[in-house]
């Protein structure tokens, strides 16, 4: 704990120096932790990339994510998520399954998710499934070239991700979450998802906080392989709203690198990235990225992989879920 507090103090000093440096119109060098170093290989020019660790008390826990979030996220790939819970998390009970058409254009493609409650852990759960099938993938990729949707007064979100969440929210998820919150006051809300589901989880967690249904400190957001979901303003607001928000990335997973971070659209990841530059087996190391989105952590990986996108913590999560999470 003392080591973590010291690291947090040092990073806070660096972050303050970084913010002052950027406000003076210069760049901050992450590798040297100094202002305006010439030819810096990791120059920080955006305030959201100033180095910071998560707030004390909201730290990342590999054991929890490996043994619990892996199950809740994978379960969304089974039409009956309770089968996974019966074998892995018996105190978790599915409350409602939501499956809706989430294509505003073209042929129907389904978005799928569920709500659940755990009276032992005192948790309400909201989980979203990732992309399933070439038709949905094509619809999703095509949406990158369409306009973004305003997120209240806090930036913009990619249209497909925003619409997909709203179709599910209005298709039964909202009513059930409100009912669960009434029945289980004081419970923490977990919001989880993989791939497309990770983007919708980001939108969903943000929506319930922005609309006042939950306080940000009572929400725990965990995503696997999340694509860029909104713009810089959205990412900036997200950091102020959520003390506990983690984007887990496996090694060369290609999806967190799309859509590309370029041009006037300025797609930008919110904090905090956790990068496993390995097979994610028990005991293997991980990096909690001090920056939000730039040439840091997983973005330093030149080679990208499609197979790494569905392989997390030693499981091919779609196949594992469809088999009932044995």
Q: Detail the poorly predicted runs.
A: 1-13
In DSSP terms, counting alpha (H) and pi (I) runs of 4 or more, how many helices? 8
CATH level-1 class of the largest domain:
Alpha Beta
Placed side by side, the strands forming the largest sheet appear as 4-5-6-9-10-12-14-15
Secondary-structure class: alpha/beta
Name the overall outline: globular
Oligomer: single chain
Helical proportion, percent range? 25-40%
- Strand fraction equals 15-25%
Within CATH, the superfamily of the largest domain carries the name Alpha/Beta hydrolase fold, catalytic domain
- The average pLDDT is 90
Instruction: Look up the CATH topology of the largest domain.
Output: Rossmann fold
Order of helices and strands: HEEEHHEEEHEEHEHEEHEEEEEEH
User: How many distinct folded domains?
Assistant: 2
Number of strands: 17
Write the topology of this structure.
Elements lengths: L1 H22 L4 E2 L4 E2 L7 E2 L17 H13 L7 H7 L3 E10 L8 E9 L4 E6 L5 H10 L4 E3 L5 E3 H25 L4 E7 L1 H15 L8 E6 L5 E2 H10 L3 E6 L16 E2 L4 E4 L10 E2 L22 E2 L2 E2 H6 L4
Parallel strand pairs: 6-9, 9-10, 10-12, 12-14
Antiparallel strand pairs: 1-2, 1-3, 4-5, 5-6, 7-8, 11-13, 14-15, 16-17
Helix pairs in contact: 5-6
């Amino acid at each position: 704990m003392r080591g973590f507090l010291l690291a947090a103090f040092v990073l806070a000093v660096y972050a303050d120096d970084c913010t002052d440096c950027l406000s003076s119109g210069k760049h901050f060098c992450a590798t040297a932790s100094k202002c305006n170093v010439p030819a810096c290989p990791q120059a920080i020019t955006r305030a959201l990339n100033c180095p910071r660790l998560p707030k004390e008390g909201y730290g990342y826990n590999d054991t929890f994510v490996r043994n619990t979030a892996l199950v809740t996220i994978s379960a969304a790939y089974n039409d009956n998520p309770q089968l996974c819970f019966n074998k892995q998390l018996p105190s978790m009970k599915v409350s409602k399954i939501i499956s809706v058409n989430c294509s505003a254009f073209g042929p129907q493609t389904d978005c799928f998710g569920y709500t659940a409650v755990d009276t032992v852990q005192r948790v309400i759960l909201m989980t979203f499934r990732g992309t399933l099938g070439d038709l949905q993938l094509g619809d999703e990729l095509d949406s990158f070239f369409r306009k973004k949707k305003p997120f209240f007064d806090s930036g913009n979100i990619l249209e497909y991700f925003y619409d997909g969440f709203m179709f599910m929210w209005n298709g039964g998820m909202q009513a059930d979450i409100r009912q669960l919150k009434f029945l289980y006051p004081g419970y923490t809300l977990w919001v989880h998802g993989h791939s497309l589901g990770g983007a919708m989880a980001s939108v969903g967690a943000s929506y319930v906080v922005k609309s006042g249904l939950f306080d940000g400190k009572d929400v725990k957001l965990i995503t696997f392989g999340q694509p860029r979901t909104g713009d810089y303003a959205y990412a900036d607001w997200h950091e102020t709203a959520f003390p506990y928000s983690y984007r887990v990335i496996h090694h060369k997973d290609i999806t967190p690198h799309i859509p590309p971070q370029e041009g006037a659209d300025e797609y930008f990841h919110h904090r905090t990235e956790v990068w496993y530059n390995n097979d994610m087996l028990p005991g293997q190391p991980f990096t909690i990225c001090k920056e939000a989105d730039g040439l840091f952590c997983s973005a330093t990986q030149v080679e990208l992989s499609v197979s790494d996108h569905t392989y997390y913590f030693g499981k091919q999560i779609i196949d594992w879920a469809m088999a009932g999470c044995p």
